[in-house]
């Protein structure tokens, strides 16, 4: 199974999804990318490390059309990626998991951490549900 997680900047949500998918599905081919490259968000690295998953070496990447077209499943994690994702062959299944961008949350560090943890935990639940499909 080959799965591609996409979001706008490949800095938070898609990186977290990639990290969880690699943990739960070590035999699958997993990757993530963005419509743009925004760099890896350090708050995402921090909250994933709380779950024992190290994404600190990940890099923000642009969509690879060949990988996209050869994937079994493409998951978009934001409306921007869903709307701007290149066309795929009919053999590629698409799912949209809409999550807020935790990097846009204003407030204290605790407010931001809470948002990142909420999104992280929501993504993990969706990844776990993939096992039953």
UniProtKB/TrEMBL annotation:
Gene3D superfamilies the UniProt entry points to: 3.40.50.2300
SUPFAM superfamilies assigned to the protein according to its UniProt record, in alphabetical order: Phosphotyrosine protein phosphatases I
Keywords recorded for this protein, A-Z: Arsenical resistance, Cytoplasm, Disulfide bond, Oxidoreductase, Redox-active center
Residue ranges of every copy of the Phosphotyrosine protein phosphatase I domain listed in the record: 1-133
Pfam families in the cross-refs: LMWPc
E.C. designation(s): 1.20.4.4
CDD domains documented for this protein: LMWP_ArsC
InterPro entries, alphabetized: Arsenate_reductase_ArsC, Ptyr_pPase, Ptyr_pPase_sf
Molecular functions (GO terms): arsenate reductase (thioredoxin) activity
Coiled coil (residue ranges): none
Keyword Cytoplasm included in the entry's annotation: yes
Oxidoreductase as UniProt keyword: yes
PANTHER family cross-referenced by the UniProt entry: ARSENATE REDUCTASE (PTHR43428)
NCBIfam families listed in its UniProt record: arsC_pI258_fam (TIGR02691)
Name the record gives this protein: Arsenate reductase (Thioredoxin)
Gene responsible for this protein: arsC
């Amino acid at each position: 199974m080959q799965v591609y997680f996409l979001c706008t900047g490949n800095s938070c949500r898609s990186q977290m999804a990639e990290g969880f998918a690699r943990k739960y599905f070590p035999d699958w081919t997993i990757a993530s990318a963005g419509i743009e490259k925004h760099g890896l968000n350090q708050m995402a690295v921090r909250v994933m490390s709380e779950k024992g998953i190290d994404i600190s070496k990940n890099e923000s990447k642009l969509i690879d059309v060949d990988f996209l077209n050869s994937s079994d499943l493409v998951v978009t994690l934001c409306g921007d990626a869903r709307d701007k994702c290149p066309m795929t062959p009919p053999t590629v299944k698409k799912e949209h998991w809409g999550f807020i961008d935790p990097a846009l949350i204003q407030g204290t560090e605790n407010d931001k951490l809470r948002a990142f943890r909420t999104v992280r935990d929501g993504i993990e639940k969706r990844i776990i549900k993939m096992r039953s499909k």
